[in-house]
Amino acid sequence: MSAPDDIVIDVEGLTKTFGKQVAVRNLSIKVKRRLIYGFLGPNGSGKTTTLRMLTGLLRPDGGHGTCLGYDILRQSAEIKRHVGYMTQRFSLYADLTIRENLEFVARIHTLPHPRDRAQEAIVRLGLESRAGQLAGSLSGGWKQRLALGACILPGPELLLLDEPTAGVDPQARRDFWDEIHALAADGLTALVSTHYMDEAERCHELAFISYGDLLATGPVEEIIARSNLSTYTVGGPDLDALSRRLKSLPGIDNIAPFGNALHVSGRDGAALEESIGPLVEAGPQHWQKSAPTIEDVFIDLVSRPKGALAAPSKDGRNA
Ligand SMILES: Nc1ncnc2c1ncn2[C@@H]1O[C@H](COP(=O)(O)OP(=O)(O)OP(=O)(O)O)[C@@H](O)[C@H]1O
Question: At the top level of its lineage, which domain of life is listed (predicted)?
C-alpha cells in the first residue's frame, strides 16, 4: 500500500500492445478519491484496455502503479475485491428478475442477509417498480441501472464504468449521471469511460486518450484554458462553401459544424484573425468570437499532427 490515501489510482507508463497494434502507450494518470474521473476517447482508443489493466485483469507490457493502494501487477485479487467493474456487455442473467439477479450477486459475494442487501440496492437505484421484471425484458436504461446496482451492491470503494451509457436515451443517461454524482457524494470514486462529449462536462476531471496516447488531463475548464484555442461561431447562409474556403487559409486549424453554425478554431489567434478579417467584413455570414467548448478542444487535440503535442508531465497533465 504505497499510494497516499487520497489517491485511488496512481499509474505510470502503462503500455499494452496486441500484436503490432499499440492499444495504450505510456499512460500515466492519478485519480483522487471521491472524484468522478472521465476517461474520454474515440472508439478503439484504448479506454477498455486501460480499465482492464487497472483492475489487474490484463497485464501491461510496460509501466507500473497502484489501484486503491494495491499493486496492479501483483495484487489483482485484492483490487477485484474492492472495485466494482461494469463492463460494456450486460453480464447479468436475462431470465432472472431484477431482484433475483441482485440477490444472486449478494450471495456470490457471500454478503450477510442477501435479500436485505438486494432490497437496499433496489431502493437506492429506484428499481422498485421493476423489481419483479425479468432482466432480459428491460430497456437499455433500466438494464444499465440494474448493472450499476449489481456493481455497488458489494460495497466497492471504486467504480470502473466502461461506457455505461452507450445506447441509452438522453433522459436515462441524465438519470444515470445523477446517480453517479450521488454515489460520489457518498464517498465513492468513479472512473467512467465515454465518447460522449456532453458527459465530459459532468466529470470533475478528465483524461482524454486517442489511439493509445494520453492527450490531456485535468478539470474541463483547465483543459480548455490550456488549449490556447481561439474560436469563432459563424452563422448564416452558404456555410458549406465558406467551410471549403476556410480550409485553405492559414491560422485555421479546425472547422466543425455545430447545428446551424460552424465553429472555426485556431491555435494562433493572430493568424486566425488575419485570415478571417476580410470574410467578417464582407459577410453575408455573421461571425462571433466564442469560448471554445470541450468538444472544440478535443477535435483540435485529435487533429494535431503526431508529435505536435506537449508530452504529459509526470502527473499526467500536459503543458
Ligand atoms: N484482446 C485484444 N486483442 C487484439 N486487439 C485488441 C484486444 N483488445 C483491444 N484490442 C485493440 O486495441 C485497441 C484499443 O481497444 P479498446 O477496446 O481498449 O478501445 P476503447 O477505447 O475501449 O474502444 P471502444 O470505445 O470501441 O470500446 C483497438 O484497436 C482494439 O482493436
Answer: Bacteria
Point out the ligand 1 atom lying closest to the alpha carbon of residue 212.
Answer: 14
**Residue with CA closest to ligand 1 atom 3:** 18
To test the ligand 1 pocket, which listed residue (16, 21, 51, 192) has its Cβ within 8 A of the most ligand atoms?
Answer: 21
Ligand 1 centroid – CA 45 distance (Å): 7
Question: 0.90 cut: is pTM over it?
Answer: no
Locate the domains of the chain by residue range.
7-223, 228-303
Phi/psi at 281 (nearest 5 deg)?
-65, -45
CA dihedral for 15, 16, 21, 24, sign (positive or negative): negative
- At the topology level, CATH places domain 228-303 in Alpha-Beta Plaits (3.30.70)
In CATH terms, 7-223 corresponds, of 3.40.50.20, 2.60.300.12, 3.40.920.10, 3.40.50.300, to 3.40.50.300
Q: Which residues line ligand 1 (CB under 6 A)?
A: 18, 21, 23, 41, 43-49, 195
Which ipTM value was assigned to this complex? Answer: 0.95
CA–centroid distance, 37 to ligand 1, in Å, is: 20
- First-to-last CA distance in the chain? 30
Residue 99 has which C-alpha cell? 431482484
How many angstroms separate the alpha carbon of residue 212 from the centre of ligand 1?
A: 9
Quick: pLDDT tens for 163-221.
888 878 888 888 889 999 999 998 899 999 988 888 888 999 999 988 888 888 999 88
Distance between CA atoms of residues 124 and 309, nearest Å = 43
Q: Can you spell out the DSSP letters for 128-174? A: GGGTTSBGGGS-HHHHHHHHHHHHHTT--SEEEEESTTTT--HHHHH
